[in-house]
Design a protein that fits this description.
The complex is a heterodimer of chains A (289) and B (256).
Chain A: H1 13-28, E1 34-35, H2 49-58, E2 64-69, H3 76-88, E3 92-93, E4 102-106, E5 119-123, H4 137-145, H5 150-163, E6 174-176, E7 180-182, H6 192-195, E8 201-206, E9 211-215, E10 221-223, E11 250-254, E12 261-265, H7 268-276
Parallel strand pairs in A: 2-3, 2-4, 4-5, 5-8
Antiparallel strand pairs in A: 1-9, 6-7, 6-10, 8-9, 11-12
Chain B: E1 10-19, E2 22-32, E3 37-41, H1 48-55, E4 63-68, E5 71-72, H2 78-86, E6 89-92, H3 96-99, H4 106-116, H5 122-135, H6 152-164, E7 170-174, H7 182-199, E8 202-207, H8 210-216, E9 219-224, E10 227-233, H9 234-239, H10 244-251
Parallel strand pairs in B: 3-8, 3-9, 6-7, 7-8
Antiparallel strand pairs in B: 1-2, 1-4, 4-5, 9-10
Helix pairs in contact in B: 4-5, 4-6, 5-6
Classes of the chains: A alpha/beta (289), B alpha/beta (256).
Chain lengths: 289, 256
């Protein structure tokens, strides 16, 4: 079968319409998990089938797509999804945050601030923030409906009781517009402050769990905490070893078996842009004259 | 304003629940006054637990009314009923595993109801949890242990602490001492009796153990086959039973 046998962006138009309806409902009720009829996608669950369906429903031929996986543009997940849409939609792709109109992401929000007109699509493994505390779906739905969110704080309480601080470091629960408690997908809690008051549209797709939820632009998003243990976004206490940035989220890379390690920006595009602008870090290669 | 002490806390009128052709409980009516402990006794299958579930809003009865402080709990919406269930009411299950979160530490278990009603200060929650563990005679050093590391009697005491931390007015108890050995039972009964007196709790206590009823209950209702066949003050019912079934029940208690 040739690529032309596929409809634009793989999904048929009826499916895209169904997904768009779910997205619109999600935008109208920020943080609410809208059920949708998730399709089988040509990739395994866990590889972003939810995000891919949301992206497919959002794409227009004029769009420029960026796909990131844990901040990087060049890892398997990012490359395969980018190629997927290059082949099935023929849209332009980029690795630069500023030039993209649609960004599909796994587990990160780009360091560069998003602007109005952009859409950020998250891949979500488990959309239900209460799932590990309450296994019954009938019960969690009721808890959302009745705003019974005390249990979420029980989890944070357990964190403090066991570790002396809120040790939840990713998928940190947030409350949206004072109403729904939402799982922001497994982004590091360092990224949580970027969720709120963001000019871009943020969409969350969970393929296996068949849920879509959304944050409209300039939405109020609060990370849950205790009065005496306030929320703190955290990152490794280092500068980037390649670009020297002190404020970006870092990956730790083991470089040998002697305990050697380096810290680099997890957002590869951000790091490259800084290096091109002449910033240097501790382990940057020497300038060639 | 009417003094709440002059009105019954709970009024039950003609409550019936059938499971198809089978009878759960039929035409049960009673008033429960503030600070009163009502025992419901009867053999297995006599409708005690059905009645308790209907009262606590876990089962919908077929006919009848349940008024809590004048409000019909069957008419009110689910949000209000659930709010009641985690503030003014408490439910102590026979099996502590049904009433506890086994994967959450003792402190978290006790704190859950506080957090559910809006407590957001970790230090205050922990202090309340420590205080309540002390009141149910659990060592404060066990606060971060999970309930599965506790003995059966401790689990039951933890369940009681978890339920009473928001100072409820009405407690439903379903065989609170079932499955515990006799000496542990005695300690638990002692503790319960103290808490009921100190906090002025109203209790509806379902049990098949007449000794438990004798120790805790002010008033007794005897059920058989879904019907209430006798009610009155505990001592009166147990010392001078009128209904033939009650006489049988009282005489079948083993004397040591």
């Amino acid at each position: 079968m040739s690529d032309q046998a596929y409809n634009f962006a793989y999904l048929d138009e009826a499916t895209k319409r169904m997904i768009r309806r779910a997205i619109l409902k999600g935008l109208a009720v920020p943080g609410y998990q809208v059920p949708f009829a998730s399709r089988e996608m040509p990739m395994p669950y866990g590889w972003g089938t939810g995000g891919v369906q949301v992206t497919a429903a959002c794409l227009t031929p004029e769009d420029t797509l960026k796909v990131i996986d844990q901040g990087a543009d060049d890892t398997t997940n990012a490359v395969s999804i980018r190629t997927f849409f290059e082949r099935t939609a023929g849209v332009a792709t980029t690795t630069q945050t500023a030039q993209a109109s649609v960004i599909q992401t796994r587990h990160r929000i780009p360091e560069e601030p998003l602007r109005a007109g952009q859409i950020l699509v998250y891949q979500v493994p488990i959309p239900e923030p209460l799932r590990f505390l309450e296994p019954r779906e009938s019960e969690t739905r009721k808890m959302h409906a009745l705003e019974e969110y005390g249990l979420m704080h029980v989890k944070l309480y357990e964190d403090i009781a066991r570790h002396g601080e809120i040790s939840t470091a990713y998928a940190y629960p947030v409350r949206v517009e004072g109403r729904y408690v939402m799982d922001p997908s497994p982004i590091p809690k360092f990224d949580n402050p970027k969720l709120g008051n963001c000019p871009a549209i943020q969409l969350f797709g969970a393929g296996r769990e068949q849920r879509i939820y959304a944050l409209p632009p300039y939405c109020d998003v609060v990370s849950l905490d205790f009065e005496d243990h306030p929320f703190t976004p955290s990152k490794a206490d280092h500068d980037c070893d390649l670009c020297g940035c002190a404020t970006s989220y870092l990956d730790e890379v083991i470089t040998d078996d002697q305990g050697g390690r380096m810290f680099v920006c997890s957002d590869t595009d951000f790091c490259e842009t800084r290096r091109d602008a002449g910033h240097r870090g501790r382990l940057s290669p020497e300038e060639t004259a | 304003m009417k003094d709440l002490r002059d009105t019954p806390l709970l009024v039950v009128e003609d409550l019936s629940k059938r499971y198809g052709a089978r009878i759960g409980c039929v035409d049960v009516s009673f008033d429960l006054w503030p600070g009163e402990v009502l025992g419901i006794v009867g053999e297995s299958g006599s409708g005690k637990s059905t009645l308790l579930s209907c009262l606590a809003g876990q089962l919908a009865p077929d006919t009848g009314r349940v008024l809590y402080q004048g409000h019909d709990t069957l008419e009110m919406g689910e949000p209000q009923r659930r709010t009641l269930a985690r503030t003014d009411w408490a439910f102590v299950h026979q099996n502590p595993r049904d009433g506890l979160r086994m994967g959450v530490s003792a402190g978290g278990n006790v704190g859950e109801r506080l957090m559910a009603v809006g407590a957001r200060n970790y230090g205050a929650i922990r202090e309340a949890a420590t205080d309540w563990l002390g009141r149910v005679e659990i060592d404060a050093t066990r606060i971060d242990d999970r309930p599965r590391q506790f003995s059966g009697g401790m689990q039951q005491r933890l369940q009681i602490a978890r339920n009473l931390v928001t100072a409820p007015k009405l407690v439903f108890m379903d065989e609170p001492t079932g499955g515990l050995d006799v000496s542990v039972q005695a300690r638990l009964l002692d503790l319960l009796r103290g808490l009921v007196r100190d906090m002025g709790l109203s209790v509806i206590l379902v049990t098949h153990d007449l000794a438990v009823a004798r120790l805790l209950a002010d008033r007794l209702m005897v059920m058989q086959g879904g019907h209430v066949i006798e009610q009155g003050l505990t001592d009166q019912v147990l010392d001078d039973p009128q209904a033939p079934y009650t006489q049988l029940l009282v005489s079948s208690v083993l004397q040591v």
